[in-house]
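Record filed below.
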Amino acid sequence: MHVHILGICGSFMGGIAAIAKSLGHTVTGSDSNVYPPMSTQLENLGIALTSGFDTKQFDPVPDVVVIGNAMSRGNPAVEYVLDRNLPYTSGPQWLLDNLLTERWVIAASGTHGKTSTASMIAWVLEDIGLEPGFLIGGVPENFGISARIGKSPFFIIEADEYDSAFFDKRSKFIHYAPRTLVMNNLEFDHADIFADLAAIQTQFHHLIRTVPNNGLIIYPDNEPALDAVIDRGCWTPTEKTNIEKNGSDTTWQAELTSTDGTSFNVWHAGKCAGEVVWSQSGKHNTYNAIAAIAAARNVGVTPAIAIAALNEFKGVKRRMERLGEVGRITLYDDFAHHPTAIQTTLEGLRAQVGGDQIIALIEPRSNTMRMGIHKKQLSHSCNAADLALWYKPSDVDWDLSSVIKNSSTDSMLCQSIDDMINVTLSNLNPNQNTHIVTMSNGGFSGIQQQLLNQIKTRLSS
């Protein structure tokens, strides 16, 4: 079958392309910007790519067109498909129809932590030889790829609440039919498609309705927004997690043995199953890990074995990924694009590095950030940093100066990438340990490598 994918270079649609190719289909695709690293990955798989949406890409005519959720009416390729009545579907629906119905799906959902949790689950199952399939919106360092079909019944997926396509406004995760479901947390996000938190909760409750009675739902016991979703009706057994060992009847608990989250005891049903000692940090990652251990147990992996696997977990690209060290200066890249994610990431780093200098470079790039929905929360999201530099992209139509004005940490608005780099360099002390974190859900205009190169040049001169 010839599968043609519109919007192929996104992390999700690129994963769909890789899976379709592995299933033996002929795969082609297009996107508005075809560029590395996704373009390189797809071309290495033998997938022909078209830059732009010229209708010539439909020669030869594909058997089915998979349309990404970034595509909208008015796009020439979309209009061509509709005018000629070509068979089309969404990415999530294609995945369900062609793969997921035959698998035990383990889904990681929530506003934050989906990528990390899914990566942890996949690694735990991989470490014991189960060779699971997965589709993750990031690249787990233990695998080096974001998607594969796998060789076992188990398939781990990052379950996103964003809509499926212009013709299917349901959340992607409605299509996944999970048997094991992790719900990490729930906050208001994606203001471009959801009116309020209640609208997102409705989608999560639709998801809960799809989990069978012989499945399992895992979620934290301190998330009122998720409690409200469960209270609407739940027909599946549940297990709760907590990272405060407090004698409660929570099924899964973590007991921090280091304040920065780099080690913690895992308690299950009142008994200590072992200690995780790993390279990750922060309470948010501890929650992710406890959920991953619980999910793995649901498919037959004992907590002790899961703990041993997580001790070897290397993390995920762009999730506090360490890009390089120059002297006493360390540069990290992180995908954080919501006030809570920014805050928890920086707090985790602060707990790890103590009194060292932390400089945060932030690009408010997501649709919700560009709309200014979270501007009040942003002012306090960088409290754990010593200096916060904010970059204003051209398509942000609200005044970021209010974030600077109301911030309780030293903050500055930068009008260009060069300006941001220069300010960062002027605040470096080569005799002090400094940690620089770039935070964006996009490429951030390549500031990471530019900054690393200029730091090397400055310290070598």
Remarks:
- The radius of gyration is 22 Å.
- The chain has a mean pLDDT of 90.
- The longest strand covers residues 271-277.
- DSSP finds 15 helices and 23 strands in the chain.
